[in-house]
């Protein structure tokens, strides 16, 4: 892990990677001891020692002079509540980049920390904000520039099959080369067909991994899990995305609330369970991701990566046997690399879901990875009995 980790982050990472915790102890650590990063901590990281409350209130009032100051101050107090679990919408996070006076690189880090997704270079709206951040514009001027591009943005359509020239590195280089607002507007107009709100590289990897799981015979040398059996989206959800654990617990919690049960009869997910289960894909979501009517999510990519990765020995075709520590580091590094290529944030030891993933990566043998993940999700969420 990086040398710039805080003490708290390093301690959380070491607990996950130690290999000393049983599954029951790991769940107990997550529920009772893990120090998740609060919204206030995320904001303070980029405040650079300034009076954060005043900076945010003054910035929001400047950007929105028609807003009531009392309501703005109330919003900021909620954000800065040290024990609060508040979140910020992505659009608000982008606005805060301007208020905090962040460079483009800092804004990329900040937005990723808030939303788990870095600034999206193919999104026409975010290209406008990237352009503005790069040139030190303030937020009101960025909004004015956005208005100039509204008709152009409406022409953007999501492509079904991403072309090589619509991937982020090429788009980034082209946007960096733009010299004026007029050039930006013209660029967006000329390239509307190459731009989109969804992640192209994430979609390509998603489809590659889904195809491996749908038809294991495609890679018969490595995947003999379901010989001569075609897996459906429902099968994949059950076998590799732990739908019978996470979605089952969410269904029980909803049913419990709807029935207005009380006391021990009522099932209420803990804060950690809710964090891990948030936006968990169901069969409809996976089908929409396949058809490109919904963007591929970070959680789905991580789970599919672990379900299809053959392990470092097969990746590198190296005859030398790796130690468990080397296998862990290799998997962690390649997972982070995949997330970076797809525009998502790296694995964060202070995120409950990410900590769970780190813990599961630390197994003596790659063949034990699936079993550990299944044990963790079963311990945390229970499991639907066959036939229910």
Gap between N and C termini:
43 Å
Give a short account of the largest sheet: none
The string of secondary-structure elements, in order, is HHHHHHHHHHHHHHHHHHHHHH
How would you classify the quaternary structure? Answer: single chain
Question: How many strands appear in the DSSP assignment?
Answer: 0
Helix content range:
55-70%
Structural class: mainly alpha
Shape category = globular
Mean pLDDT: 88
Query: How large is the share of residues in beta strands?
Result: under 5%
- Poorly predicted runs: 220-228
Cα-based radius of gyration, to the nearest Å: 23 Å
Q: What's the number of helices? A: 22
Please give the structural blueprint.
Layout: H1 7-17, H2 23-32, H3 39-45, H4 52-63, H5 69-80, H6 90-99, H7 104-115, H8 124-134, H9 139-148, H10 150-153, H11 168-176, H12 181-190, H13 200-214, H14 233-240, H15 246-258, H16 271-277, H17 283-290, H18 298-308, H19 312-316, H20 324-341, H21 352-361, H22 369-381
Helix pairs in contact: 1-21, 2-22, 4-5, 6-7, 8-9, 13-18, 21-22
What does this structure look like?
With 388 residues, this protein is an all-alpha fold. The chain is 58% helix and 0% strand. The protein is globular.
In brief, what are we looking at here?
This protein is an all-alpha fold. It is built from 22 helices and no strands. The chain is globular and about 60 Å long.
């Amino acid at each position: 892990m990086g040398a710039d980790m805080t003490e708290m982050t390093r301690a959380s990472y070491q607990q996950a990677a130690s290999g000393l915790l049983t599954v029951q102890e790991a769940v107990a650590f997550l529920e009772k001891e893990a120090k998740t990063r609060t919204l206030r901590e995320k904001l303070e990281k980029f405040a650079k020692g300034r009076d954060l409350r005043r900076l945010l209130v003054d910035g929001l009032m400047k950007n929105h002079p028609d807003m009531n100051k009392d309501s703005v101050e109330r919003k900021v107090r909620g954000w800065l509540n040290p024990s609060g679990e508040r979140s910020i919408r992505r659009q608000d996070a982008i606005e805060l980049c301007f208020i905090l006076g962040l460079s483009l690189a800092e804004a990329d880090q900040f937005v990723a920390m808030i939303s788990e997704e870095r600034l999206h270079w193919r999104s026409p709206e975010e290209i406008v904000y990237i352009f503005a951040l790069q040139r030190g514009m303030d937020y009101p001027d960025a909004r004015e520039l956005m208005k100039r591009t509204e008709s152009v943005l409406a022409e953007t359509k999501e492509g079904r099959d991403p072309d090589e020239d619509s991937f982020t590195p090429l788009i980034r280089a082209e946007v960096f080369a733009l010299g004026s607002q007029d050039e930006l507007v013209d660029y967006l107009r000329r390239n509307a067909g190459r731009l989109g709100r969804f992640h192209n590289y994430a979609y390509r990897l998603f489809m590659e991994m889904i195809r491996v799981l749908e038809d294991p015979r495609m890679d018969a040398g490595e995947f003999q899990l379901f010989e001569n059996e075609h897996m459906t989206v429902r099968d994949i959800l059950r076998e590799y995305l732990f739908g019978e654990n996470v979605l089952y617990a969410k269904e029980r919690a909803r049913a419990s609330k709807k029935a207005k049960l009380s006391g021990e009869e009522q099932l209420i997910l803990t804060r950690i369970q809710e964090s891990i289960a948030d936006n968990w894909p169901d069969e409809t979501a996976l089908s929409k991701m396949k058809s490109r009517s919904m963007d591929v999510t970070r959680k789905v990519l991580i789970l599919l990566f672990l379900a299809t990765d053959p392990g470092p020995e097969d990746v590198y075709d190296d005859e030398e046997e790796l130690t468990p520590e080397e296998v862990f580091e290799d998997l962690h590094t390649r997972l982070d690399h995949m997330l970076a290529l797809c525009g998502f944030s790296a694995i964060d030891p202070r995120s409950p879901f990410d900590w769970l993933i780190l813990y599961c990566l630390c197994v003596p043998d790659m063949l034990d990875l699936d079993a550990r993940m299944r044990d963790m999700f079963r311990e945390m969420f229970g499991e639907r009995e066959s036939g229910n």
